[in-house]
């Protein structure tokens, strides 16, 4: 983290991994310039899969979105940072908590938590059936 991000006027999570950063494009917005919830859900699903992918060391599938909260709207020009933390490792599944922060208005920098969610991923085999997670290093 460089000195510019150290001065952000918000407490970013220190117990979570920064797994993805993305900026929405005009095609992701409605007529008012707000970003579609479905686009944000897709980004959260992608970001949420990063840590389970490492744990499963192979193919995974999203089995459940246990919770999804849109706290604040996302607007064109926002830079989104997606953080994830593993909440539970089961026999075949991994549950993660994801938080999304939007960095906006560079002239008077503002960082707000816009979304949080909890998702579960299952390790699957070549037939798409659940498989036990491999031993962790
Ligand atoms: C993922 C899939 C292979 C799981 O198969 P399944 O027969 O339902 O799995 P099981 O009942 O054996 O459960 C497997 C694991 O998922 C967990 N799980 C199942 N349903 C769950 C739910 N609704 N919420 C949280 N965890 C769930 C189980 O607890 C189990 O975890 P564990 O082994 O760590 O204890 C199957 O449901 C599937 O293919 N779903 C479609 C996935 C997909 O296409 N996702 C993309 C979005 S369209």
TrEMBL record:
The Enzyme Commission number assigned here is 3.1.2.20
Domain HotDog ACOT-type positions = 14-127
Q: Which controlled-vocabulary keywords does the entry list?
A: Hydrolase
* Listed PROSITE patterns: HOTDOG_ACOT
Tagged with keyword Transmembrane helix: no
Q: Which GO terms describe its molecular function?
A: fatty acyl-CoA hydrolase activity
Q: What are the coiled-coil residue ranges?
A: none
Sequence similarity = Belongs to the acyl coenzyme A hydrolase family.
Protein name per UniProt: Acyl-CoA thioesterase
């Amino acid at each position: 983290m460089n000195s510019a991000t150290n001065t952000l006027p918000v407490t970013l999570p220190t117990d979570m991994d920064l797994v993805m950063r993305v900026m929405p494009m005009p095609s992701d917005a409605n007529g008012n310039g707000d970003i579609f919830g479905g686009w944000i859900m897709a980004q959260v699903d992608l970001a949420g899969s990063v840590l389970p992918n490492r744990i499963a060391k192979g193919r995974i599938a999203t089995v459940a979105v246990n919770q999804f909260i849109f706290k604040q709207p996302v607007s064109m020009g926002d830079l989104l940072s997606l953080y994830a933390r593993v909440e539970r490792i089961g026999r075949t599944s991994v549950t993660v908590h994801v938080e999304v922060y939007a960095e906006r208005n560079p002239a008077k920098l503002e960082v707000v938590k816009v979304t949080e969610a909890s998702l579960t991923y299952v390790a699957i085999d070549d037939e798409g059936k659940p498989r036990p997670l491999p031993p962790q290093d």
